[in-house]
Backbone:
């Protein structure tokens, strides 16, 4: 298992390579990964000379307790003024920042406070690329999170009966996950009945379940800081022929995409494997999103499993595989599992039957 | 009640004044406020010539159903490339964007796609300043959200007994809020026992409650899209003298700050009212955060009720008042209510007793 200390050391080696004196970290997932700090506000400055966490009064006690070996500074005035001042004081010359995580306004404040001695270097996804390769301890944690998600989806399926509301099912899912030790849902739990299943990101409403409706359940937990994400689709009653055909198509597409997941495979090829199966059924125009996404400390992280993505899978990558079809009049069908890439095999982390369930 | 249409009209009038042809909106709360769209990804371009929502395949059905009178465009390639292209096609000249909401990378993509014909104008908080002044329908919704939060805190207090875990209480609170129609918590519910109450933003853990411990419960709901936020502190047992004194100090500080809330009062003066009371008890150094924050579609929005804030309160503003004291060895005490500013009076939206509860 890598310790935060080793992660910091790996990052610092990478910075030296890119001739960056100090790297600014503004994402909570990134600073947790590097230091163990779980506070919600702050910024981390990583450099060979040492690592500093700048945060506000609400998180000082927490910072000292969690982020050992890191200098903890309380911000004076605005966060980014304090960070700029800290960089100026440490005589950092070339400072890296992630343009996808720093706002235009934050960069203005930083420039002003740090003064002309600092050159600002674009440094995209430095920590994210380390986070993509999960170590054994991370994979063990993600396995548990995935298994819990599978248990919750099975429990939720047992609740489905005519008259129950989407929000009752959603409330029960999130209650049970907390009772089982999750710190919360990895994303807003999706429970969509009937035509509402046509919305890939439907939030639970007061809609009641009726006979002969589709049900899409898409949920994930955060357990020990790591996310899981699973989707199952159920039919209340005996599914008509076209629904069976659609379900079969999505299941085959998912199976093909999982089979395409391999050490060295390009993410775009995994996406294409799903899309080709749906095209064979002439349903590819109803597949309105990408095949999957990386999963870890965040529910959406690198790598993206989407059309044309050239990134090649490596051992330690964990991704979702979640093809679906959606039609405004009818509803939607999606099947999603979490998959880990190993050197010589692929591991499906979620464990829940994938066949069409009719109840 | 203002309709989204009127809000858009008010915003467009404001843009004309600032000589902005089109305003880019990238925050979900802002696009919901202006159009009713509840999707999680996209961008809105507001201009006199019409308003366009650019989103991806997952949200097209939802966009068409929710955002009436708005052109819905499906993004091609990345979101910000599509937005830039849309601005180029509409021959917009001066385009406003909020530097606190647009990343450096997004602005790079926008500039590239929109080409040299577009001038990018800093336009900070245009929609936020409209959102600060809640109308009657918004206040009615916020009253309901606040009352529900008060009920939940009372219910949670009844659960407190030796041996119960923080996470059991947290799970029950979030379950009950959903059963009562909330779409979810306004923020991660805080349940902190004993010394953990010294962390203003503690997340529930497996820690069990013991006799003679402080309990901080800080929760809020999202009900009909609007947030509430309430904190109560309880002592399990008969509180020792120093805890009673601290509680009394925080209660007096909160009472003084609520009394200072008035149409026309500066936010910094409201903050000072709380701080002065605590200083009288020599406890001001333990008050490690600001007195409050605006509340509405987001749980933290304008105005900020903090040291030195010059912004003057206006009718329709809704803010929290939440002084607290924290000490690493002992725990923490915080009391928080939600307050609406009217032309000639102040309304406390949360309804829950504020005296020290010993159980």
Residues:
């Amino acid at each position: 298992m890598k310790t935060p200390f080793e992660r910091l050391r790996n990052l610092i080696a990478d910075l030296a390579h890119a001739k960056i004196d100090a790297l600014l970290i503004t994402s909570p997932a990134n600073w947790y990964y590097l230091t163990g700090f779980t506070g919600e506000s702050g910024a981390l400055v990583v450099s060979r000379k040492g690592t500093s966490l700048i945060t506000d009064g609400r998180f000082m006690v927490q910072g000292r307790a969690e982020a050992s070996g890191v200098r903890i500074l309380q911000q004076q005035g605005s966060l980014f003024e304090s960070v700029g001042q800290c960089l100026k004081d440490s005589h950092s010359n070339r400072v890296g920042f992630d343009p996808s995580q720093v706002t235009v306004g934050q960069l203005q404040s930083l420039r002003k406070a740090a003064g002309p001695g600092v050159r600002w270097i674009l440094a995209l996804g430095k920590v994210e690329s380390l986070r993509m390769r999960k170590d054994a301890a991370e994979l063990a944690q993600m396995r548990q999170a995935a298994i819990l998600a599978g248990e919750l989806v099975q429990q939720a399926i047992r609740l489905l009966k005519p008259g129950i509301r989407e929000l009752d099912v959603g409330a029960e899912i999130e209650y049970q996950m907390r009772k089982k030790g999750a710190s919360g849902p990895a994303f807003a739990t999706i429970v969509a009945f009937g035509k509402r299943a046509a919305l890939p990101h439907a939030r639970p409403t007061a809609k009641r379940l009726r006979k002969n409706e589709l049900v899409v359940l898409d949920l994930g937990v955060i357990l020990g800081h790591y996310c899981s994400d699973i989707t199952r689709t159920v039919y209340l009653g005996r599914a008509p022929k076209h629904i069976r055909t659609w379900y079969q198509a999505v299941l085959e597409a998912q199976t093909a995409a999982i089979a395409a997941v391999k050490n060295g495979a390009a993410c775009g090829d995994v996406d294409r494997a799903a899309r080709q199966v749906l095209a064979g059924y002439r349903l590819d125009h109803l597949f309105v999103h990408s095949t999957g996404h990386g999963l870890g400390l965040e529910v959406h992280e690198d790598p993206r499993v989407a059309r044309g993505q050239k990134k090649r899978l490596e051992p330690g990558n964990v991704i979702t595989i979640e093809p679906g079809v959606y039609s405004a009049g009818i509803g939607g069908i999606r099947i999603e599992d979490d998959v880990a890439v190993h050197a010589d095999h692929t591991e499906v982390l979620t464990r829940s039957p994938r066949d069409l369930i009719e109840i």
